[in-house]
UniProtKB/TrEMBL annotation:
It comes from Kribbella pratensis. Residues 759-775 have a biased composition (Low complexity). One of its GO terms (molecular function) is serine-type D-Ala-D-Ala carboxypeptidase activity. Residues 758-802 are annotated as: Disordered. This is Membrane peptidoglycan carboxypeptidase. Keywords: Carboxypeptidase, Cell shape, Cell wall biogenesis/degradation, Glycosyltransferase, Hydrolase, Multifunctional enzyme, Peptidoglycan synthesis, Protease, Transferase. Transmembrane segments: none annotated. The keyword Glycosyltransferase applies. Residues 692-759 form the PASTA domain. The keyword Iron-sulfur does not apply. It holds the Pfam family PASTA. PANTHER family: BINDING PROTEIN TRANSPEPTIDASE, PUTATIVE-RELATED, PEPTIDOGLYCAN GLYCOSYLTRANSFERASE.
């Protein structure tokens, strides 16, 4: 019985409460517009049931807060938001603003409870005499409830229910208002209301409104500014000063006069405020939301795409996108504005948006993977000479172009595979200008591959029997094709994959197809991006440490608490000494005689490699110091792809297209600017073993019959050629004078050993070696104390020569 009595008493109290406010009848029933008959037939029983069903507590809606994306120095890259809002404490709102909003919206706010009976009756009488709604009777608390219910709505139907013009919504709204008044103080309610209210023109909440219209914080608002903002909440669109300054001023003046009537301000203050212009257009800040309106839209969109793929932010991509726009996150990224500016400067002076070709550059930090800069020649947008394609990233990301064929930049991975196999840096191969490789077998990871019509040629002037260093300097195609045939394509493919290369047209790092193992692999294969290639070359700079590109360095939630994010994701993909060898070879590309020699600058060691694809449809330069690595590309990005020669770059028709002369200057200008504040750095010199290769002892054959010596060498695991003609030697005429490489130096197993026959003439200087009877050639070795790449040893044949 006791429980029933208590329950009955609760119903009675609810009914009494309702009847108390229902003195206002039609006012409560339909937004003060329906006459008293509006509640006819609404029985006490129905009233008690309705009120009994309503919650006794109001669940506060989480305020949707904008998220910001920051550069590494803390500057804002972009703002992500459904509503441009920055919540503030009431203490951060100017007192005059608090007074203005109370004066015009609910001047008895601090005197009444959830419902202002006096204010509502006044509004009701005004509306009844006018025959339409002229005044609202809702208190600030009721307005806060209404805005909150709309904010909570997730579907159009829920929004309609939250704004329906019927008695059920009004009763529910009032009940919630009563709960709010019990839960919070007046100051707390006012704070919540000011942070939630719509102030028009995309500004939500008082702080965003103050910054948008006046370029000040809410704490700095003056009387005329506060009056204008207070007047906006009644009709944010109609009184928007950016749309209709006169209507906005008229409404502002109403607020000022009301404040004067209530003795909130003096006559002098009112007169001064009334004379003040409603806004200064020069101080209105556009609400630039989203990456498209940020400083670096392509980089920003790539960051957002990666975040939207993170399941930690929601079950679905839609959930994650909504979370990023409403959670008030502070997302710090790797982008360095100084490095970005250097790269952008290079793009600006070497290309134009109106060019037929495109240019792009990505710069990363070796040893961390931090993506420092990402620029391109076509700006973001949908107009002529603009694009939404990001030419620096993979196709799996919305907007990613998916890369270009990488040309001879692929030779760096062949060099790494050869050094890893123990091939010396001075390994020589007879490299004719054209090779007949029709149906020649190349070993792959799963068998062999061949091309029935492959007859490649060199595209540059080259040394007839170059070392690996000389071949890299001249980018000798036939050398690297024969080298890749010797070591096999599988080691090259594995190294490329371990350094983050995959076909960027087919997916991301987890889903994409690996680079195809074909006969021409070392000359370029598949489609790679500047981001991939700069990150791969950065691994050489970091002595074999490959780091996955790293863009988001930290995330903090709205309360300033750190959100777990990944740090640097690095692995030792190559042995340090192998990377040292690659650096020694590619360093010589940028020295005298190399294709990149004109791109060398400063005192730091630099290394790099050119790349040109078939028919000059794309040209590359990838290079690095130990501090930064970058890849630049100039390409045709419009189907059907055509030769760059004849297209425009920097507003001029191209009569030549090359990695060194076309993409190289973009790389050089960007890196010069990016590296100017870094200290001088040098690469680690390769070890004696790396320079000499993984050598095997050669049997001593000097003085033997050449044919017997050849058999002995073959039995030891070497290939053999006998040079034509004879040379000066102490040995008996017709016997072996010496071999190349020399017996004391050894040679990699399976390499070519050339036998030179003595003429019996004892001279200090032997004859120059003659043509061999076997054209492929073989290795030569060096004195282990005489590294040929190092300028400290001038008697070793000079820089870049064995």
């Amino acid at each position: 019985m006791r429980v029933r009595e208590k329950g009955d008493r609760g119903v009675v109290q609810s009914v009494v409460l309702f009847l108390g406010v229902s003195v206002l009848s039609g006012a409560l029933a339909a937004g003060l517009a329906i006459p008293f008959a509006g509640l006819a037939g609404f029985t006490t029983e129905k009233t008690s049931t309705t009120l009994q069903d309503l919650p006794q507590q109001f669940d506060e809606v989480p305020v949707k807060q904008k998220s910001v994306i920051l550069a590494a120095d803390g500057s804002v890259i972009a703002t992500l938001a459904e509503q441009n809002r920055t919540p503030v404490k009431l203490a951060q709102v100017a007192p005059i603003m608090q007074k203005a909003i109370v004066a015009i919206e609910d001047d008895r706010f601090y005197e009444h409870g959830a419902l202002d009976l006096k204010g509502t009756l006044r509004a009701l009488l005004q509306n009844q005499s006018a025959g339409s709604v002229q005044q609202g009777g809702s208190s600030i608390t009721q307005q806060y409830v209404k805005i909150s219910l709309v904010e909570k709505a997730k579907t159009p139907e829920e929004v309609a229910a939250a704004t329906a013009d019927n008695y059920q919504r009004k009763v529910a709204e009032l009940r919630y208002a009563i709960a709010v008044e019990k839960q919070y103080s007046k100051q707390e309610i006012l704070e919540k209301y000011l942070n939630l209210a719509n102030f028009g023109d995309g500004a939500w909440g008082i702080q965003a409104a103050a910054q948008h219209y006046f370029s000040v914080n809410a704490s700095q608002l003056t009387l005329p500014q506060a009056a204008m903002l207070a007047g906006l909440v009644k009709n944010p669109t109609g009184y928007d000063p950016t749309n209709n300054a006169k209507r906005a001023k008229d409404r502002r003046d109403v607020v000022i006069k009301r404040m004067l009537e209530l003795h909130v301000i003096s006559v002098a203050q009112a007169n001064s405020a009334l004379k003040t212009p409603v806004i200064d257009p020069a101080k209105v800040r556009p609400n630039k939301l989203g990456c498209a309106n940020g400083k670096y839209p392509f980089y920003c969109e790539y960051v957002v795409a990666q975040l939207e793929d993170n399941p930690a932010f929601g079950k679905t991509k839609t959930d994650r996108a909504n979370y990023l726009k409403t959670a008030g996150l502070t997302i710090k990224t790797s982008l360095d504005p100084k490095t970005q500016a250097a790269a952008q400067h290079s793009i600006d002076i070497h290309s134009k948006p109106t060019d037929q070709s495109i240019a792009a550059i990505t710069i990363v930090e070796p040893g961390t993977g931090l993506v420092k800069a990402m620029v391109q020649s076509k700006p973001y947008g949908g107009k002529k000479n603009q694009t939404s394609y990001n030419y620096n990233v993979e196709k799996s990301y919305p907007g990613g172009y998916g890369g270009f064929q990488n040309g001879s930049t692929m030779k760096a991975f062949t060099i790494a595979a050869a050094i890893q196999k123990g091939i010396p840096l001075t390994y020589k191969i007879n490299s004719p200008n054209t090779l007949d490789l029709r149906d020649t077998k190349f070993q792959t990871c799963n068998g062999t591959t061949r091309d029935p019509s492959y007859q490649p040629s060199n595209s540059t002037n080259n040394v007839p029997d170059p070392t690996m260093i000389q071949a890299a300097q001249k980018s000798t195609n036939t050398y690297f094709l024969l080298l890749s045939q010797k070591i096999g394509l599988c080691p090259i493919a594995k190294i490329a994959a371990s350094l983050g290369l995959y076909d960027a047209q087919t997916g991301d790092a987890q889903t994409a197809k690996p680079l195809e193992q074909v006969a021409s692999m070392t000359l370029g294969v598949g489609y790679v991006t500047p981001l991939q290639l700069s990150s791969a070359y950065a691994a050489f700079a970091a002595r074999g440490m490959y780091c996955t590109p790293w863009l988001v360095t930290s995330i903090k939630d709205a309360a300033g608490k750190s959100v777990t994010t990944r740090g640097a994701d690095c692995k030792q993909a190559l042995a340090p000494e192998v990377a040292d060898g690659v650096n020694a070879v590619l360093h010589q590309v940028m020295q005298k005689g190399g294709t990149g020699s004109k791109l060398n600058f400063g005192k730091s060691d630099l290394a790099g490699k050119t790349g040109t694809i078939t028919a000059n449809k794309a040209v590359w330069y990838a290079g690095y110091s130990s501090k930064l690595a970058a890849a630049s590309v100039v390409a045709d990005a419009s189907l059907p792809y055509k030769n760059l020669i004849g297209q425009t770059l920097n507003g001029k028709k191209m009569y030549d297209a090359s990695g060194s002369g076309t993409a190289g200057p973009l790389w050089m200008t960007a890196m010069q600017g990016a590296l100017k504040d870094y200290p001088t750095t040098h690469f680690v010199a390769p070890s004696d073993k790396i320079q000499r290769g993984d050598v095997k002892s050669l049997p001593f054959v000097n003085g033997m019959n050449p044919d017997d010596a050849a058999n002995k060498l073959r039995q030891a695991g070497f290939d053999v050629a006998i040079a034509s003609g004879t040379v000066n030697s102490d040995e008996t005429a017709g016997t072996v004078a010496y071999t190349d490489p020399r017996q004391r130096d050894g040679a990699p197993e399976g390499s070519l050993v050339t036998i030179y026959v003595s003429n019996g003439n004892n001279k200090n200087q032997p004859n120059k070696p003659q043509n061999t009877t076997k054209p492929p050639g073989g290795p030569t070795t060096i004195n282990p104390n005489c590294p040929p790449w190092n300028p400290k040893y001038p008697n070793c044949g000079g820089r870049g020569h064995g």
